[in-house]
Write a structure and sequence with these properties.
Blueprint (H helix, E strand, L loop, with lengths): L6 H6 L11 H32 L6 H14 L5 E3 L2 E3 L4 H21 L7 H5 L6 H24 L8 H24 L1 H7 L3 H31 L1 H11 L3 H13 L1 H13 L3 E3 L4 E2 L4 E2 L28 H16 L5 H24 L13 E3 L1 H34 L1
Antiparallel strand pairs: 1-2, 3-6, 4-5
Amino acid sequence: MTSLLSAPARRTAPAADPRQRRPLLLVGVLGGALAAAGLLVLCLGLAVTGWFLTDAASHGAPRDALRVGALGWLTGHGSGVRVEGAAVTAIPLLITLLAAWSCWRVGLRVGHSVSGHGPDADQISDGERDWTVPVAVACFVIGYVAVLLLTLRLAATPTTSPAASPAMGWSLLLAGSVGGSAVAVGSGRAAIWAAMLPGNLRATAACCRAVLRAMLLVSFVTLAVAFLLDAATAVNVLAELQLSQGEMVLFAGLTLLVLPNATLFAAAYLLGPGFTVGAETLVSPTLVVTGPLPAFPLLAALPDSGRVPGWAVWLIAVPPLAAAVGAALAQRRRPTVRWEEGALRGCAGGVAAGVLLGALAAVAGGAIGPGRMRFVEPLVLDVLVHAITALGIGGLVGGLAMTWWQRRTFDRAG
């Protein structure tokens, strides 16, 4: 981007691409609207397809299927919905993740389109204020929220009652943080700002990402193994439901929507505190107490209620090990031979990953029906404390271990 090159380079560089100086306000608003509308249209299309697959369009009307798709999109933004009078507040996190991905991809394009606005890198380094990214992000948020409000206006009914306030909060978070970060990266400003940060801070952030990825990966693997070990139960549940092929496809799609939620529940289990699947229940490595459960195949991954095998308690060693591996891999890309740097990067990165994991656990659960099924959630506060402790200690060990290895390699090379 020629607008952000140094002064000598700009004198010999060709003229800036006109596409990088498109109208700032217009590009920002349209980008935010496109980020929201793209996933919304996908949800609408899938809802209509599901209506044809399950009902062959013999009941209801297309607008009913479109409303279901719109409500699904809103639920992915935390609005909740009422189904036959029962509140459903659990967020299908796959929709939320897709919304974040949409904001990121479109935000990058918006950032590139407005990168020619504002001062260049030299002027920014000299302290000149650059309002390009803040203005573009504000417009991006306005476009995103406008689509949300329009969808609420058209899809909400007195019987479904989606909540506007939580949906607004999630929209601001997605468009402002994810979309805003993408705009900063696409415009080139993020690279300038990141260069001003201390190297250890950047290394700690990389460690945090690596530890969080490692923890989520082992949680997903744990979920998959638990499900496969009792896949026969899932098959029996599907057989009892007597679903048609179209309904089976729709049911599989609904299962995928909550797969990220189930992964976070598995993380809560590995950390020790566990989670509830209804009032007065608990699923943890040391105690499993469950009651009647909905006919949902993914619940076959739950351990049997009653006596817990002796080896299950050792599963709480998995999170520190995952954190140690993640921290070591992160430090491998950013080597250091100083013990204090290795310890700080690993421990601080692990603690930060624990905080993020606790925040994710807080949005993974919620009510999924009436009565006892209003309480399906990880034990958030306990998960937060255990995550900070386990991932912090694991990150510390991993950072120190990789520092020892890098010092040893450096001594041999010397």
